[in-house]
Design goal:
four-stranded antiparallel β-sheet, four-stranded mixed β-sheet
């Protein structure tokens, strides 16, 4: 009896720490993950293709305004019967037949370089 009373007095002095509560704190379960860490990806964006290239080849009939070549930069140059739009697309300026010719064009530096000229006859 005396030990129970002294235990109770001690509990009150310490601040009411219950022995069952302290046992519960000692025996808490550590939960393990059920799924592996997936991580995150940063470089997973992509854009659609630009659909560049020759749309009408040499010898094919073309109508006024039709696209002949879609390109980046002025790799192929417009000739007679064609014009280049602001995104370097070469269009037909009149109805006719598409022709491709090799010509030397003068560069900004003064050199000449071989380029393909697109014409409509």
């Amino acid at each position: 009896m005396k030990s129970e009373a002294s235990d109770e007095v001690l509990r009150q002095e310490v601040g009411g720490v219950d022995s069952s509560a302290s046992k519960q704190a000692d025996c808490q379960e550590v939960k393990m993950s059920k799924v592996k860490a997936g991580g995150s990806s940063k470089n997973n964006r992509d854009s659609a293709g630009r659909r560049l290239g020759v749309k009408l080849f040499g010898g094919e009939p073309v109508k006024n305004g039709q696209i002949i070549i879609r390109q980046v930069g002025s790799n192929k140059r417009p000739g007679v019967g064609t014009f280049m739009s602001k995104d370097f697309t070469i269009h037909a300026a009149k109805d006719g037949i598409v022709q491709f010719n090799k010509r030397r064009f003068k560069l900004f530096s003064g050199k000449t370089a071989p380029r393909t000229e697109v014409t409509v006859k």
